[in-house]
Each structure stands twice: as C-alpha cells, then as structure tokens.
Amino acid sequence: MLARRRVFLAFLFALAIALPGFAEDHCVVKAVVGGKPVTLKHCAVAFYDSENSVTIFFTEAPLSAEEAQTFQMNAYPDEKDSSGHRRTATHLAFCPGGGKPTPAPGAVKSVEMGWSHASSVFLSRQWVFELPQDKELKIGKLSGDLKLGGRLSGRMTGGKKSDGLDYSWDFDFDLRLPDKAAAAGQGCGS
To answer: What φ, ψ does residue 77 adopt, rounded to 5°?
Structure first.
C-alpha cells in the first residue's frame, strides 16, 4: 500500500511539472549595446488586456518584488534601479496578436524597443520598428495565450548601427502573464 502511494505521489509530481500552468518563466537576451556585449537574464512582463499588448522589461540584475509589481501595473521600464543607479536593460512593447488574443509573428505590426547601459547614458537608444518593412528586427517565433495569467513565448533577433555604434540582439522568452492588467500599454489599433 505504501509503495502504491509513493508511485501515485511521484506521478502527481511529474504531472504537475509537465502542466503549462506550472512552467517556469524563462528570459534571456544576448546583445551588443553600443559595441558592448551584455547578457540580460531577468525580466518582468506587463499585460494591457484591453489591447492584448505586452511590455517586457529585461535587466542584467534582478528587479525587486516591488519594482516588478510596479512595472506590471504601469508598463513603464525604469532606467534606474531602486537605489538610483543606472541599469543595463532593454524593453519590448508590442501587440503579439495584432490586437487579437492569439500571438503570431506575422500579426505584429509595430515593436517599440529601448536600451539603456549602466556605463553611459550615451549608449541609450529607443526605436520603433514597423513590420514587415523594417528588416532590422525579425520575429522567429511567437506563441501563447494572451489573457490574464496566460503565457507568451517568443524569439526576436536583429541588429542595427546607430551613430556608428553596433547594436544587436537575440531575445528568447517564455513568460507567464500577470493576473492583474496593466493600467497602460501599447495600443494595437483593434
């Protein structure tokens, strides 16, 4: 009887790990920012549910729980940490499904991207890519379920020169969307 119970509990544990609702968040950005290589392994996501838009904030150092919660509420990426120091970070703001609840690479019409680097304000950049016209940004994959508590996975790559400096990026993310909607976000024109 005890052996059956252990087998049953092991089965439940394995099942819980396999369920999508239990998947762990993953985000990595490997980039060159103004010629300086960076790797960002921490992130937070805000979901503006009335437009089905997301803003993802990637950072070199972890965000505090309060910073992450504030970002989820206002979708505003702060270039300084809670102690007032500049951080190396980037953000993406876009409509993964073009305003609809199903993400698809071809549905994305516009992506706002911003960069900051802890070493210099002069490496900061902000761009809006209009797709498919702007070839500097490629969306390799995009999937998920755009709803509160849903998931969003994707991969975006690309690069460009700005003022003679090199910028390139490889975004890879699989994130659970927040349970509460952001008060603001990108408009999708839906």
So the answer is: -75, 120
